[in-house]
Each structure stands twice: as C-alpha cells, then as structure tokens.
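--- STAGE predict ---
source: upstream dedup step, 1 unique chain passed
mode: sequence only
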Amino acid sequence: MQDIPASKTAVTPRTIALRKNDEEFLDAVLRLDPKLAAFDCDGTLWSGDAGEGFFRWEVERGLISQEIARRVQARHADYRKGLVDEDTMCGEMVTLHAGLADADMEVAAEEFMSKHIVPNFFPAMLELVQKLHERGCEIWAVSSSNQWVIRAGVRHFGIPRERILSAEVFIENGKVVDRLVRVPSGPGKPQALRDVVGRVPDAAFGNSKWDADMLAMAKVGFAVNPNPDLEQTAQENGWTVYQP
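--- STAGE serialize ---
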C-alpha cells in the first residue's frame, strides 16, 4: 500500500464542546496509556454504516450497473433473513466493484464520505484518537466496510492506510478484481490483527457483536455506542460502555 501525504492524515478539528461523560471516557482510556489501540469504524468512530450508505449512494448515481445493484440488493435481503452469512455479505459488498478503476473508487468514496459521514464523526472519538497520536500510540482501524470508504474516513483521524484492516480486494493494473485480501468481521478482526500486526492491542473499541472478539482479544475493551447485543456482552465482561 502506498502512503498518503501527511497533509491528508491531519485530524479534523473538533468544533463541538465535549460533555462530562465524554471527558470521563477520555480520561479512562488515557489513564491506561495504551501503546497499541484498535478501532472499529462504523458506529464507533462515526454514526451510521458507511459501507451500506456508499452502496445506496452508488446505485442512486449510476456508478454501478442496475444488474449488479439488483443482485446485491437481493443478496442483502437474504442476509437480513439470515440466509447469507456476515463474512460473505461483507465480501460481496466490496467485490461488486470488480472491473472498476481503483482511482475512480477513491474519488467516489471521498465525495460520499465528506458529504454523508464526516458530519457524523463523534467529537470525543476525534479527540481521543488525536490524544493517542500525541502520546505515540500505534492506532489501527479494523472494519468490515470496503477499503475505499474506510480510507476516506479514517484519514480525518490521522490513521494512514497502512494501518487499516478493512474488507479489501486486490487491485491489478489499476482495476478492482474479484479476489479478496480479507474480510475482518467477528473472529476475523482479531485474526487480522494477529496476522498483520502480530501483537495484542492494549485497548480496542467497537459497537456491535461483530466487534466482540476484538474487544475480548484486547487487554481492555470499550463498547462505544453499543448495539444492545454488544452492550449485554460488555456488561458480562466488565467492559466500559460509552455513549457518545
């Protein structure tokens, strides 16, 4: 992976004052002085699902064919019914772009994220990641959404693409190919960290059951904006629950 310019990894300035519970959350994390931290993205660093939102946005703008759109929509309906597993669905949400130019995907993701996701960043998470950077913490983004939207989102948090573990496909001759690098979801998240990073995170942050394995792997887990299923798991495991 190529590095992106330093100017594109600057943390987006915070414009909203933090609340008391935000400050308490930041203090709880910073007291640990983590040297390695892993963050889920959708629902954790920002509200909303960037992967699903990007797909709808692509369909509306005709960036993918109607045939592909109908096929993926049918598959997603089956996924909602439990007929397609999480890893398969997340993989198909990125391989559907096979044949498109990687550069075009990056431009499209930047446009979508800037308009629809950046305004939904959680201010306290921006502040936390900034403070961790300042302390020299090694930060990884781990997400089952596609590589383009995650890169476009986490660069605002100062996380470079070489520290992103997302649903990713191979790029050949500048084109997306129908071959997966990885799909980090559920047990796949700690597996990706073991394979690529080779160390256990001091702290991990997530919002859904698909992050539970990563939080369990870390020395300390934080349930951020948790879905009910993760909130119950967090209570059972004594993980801090934080509502941004």
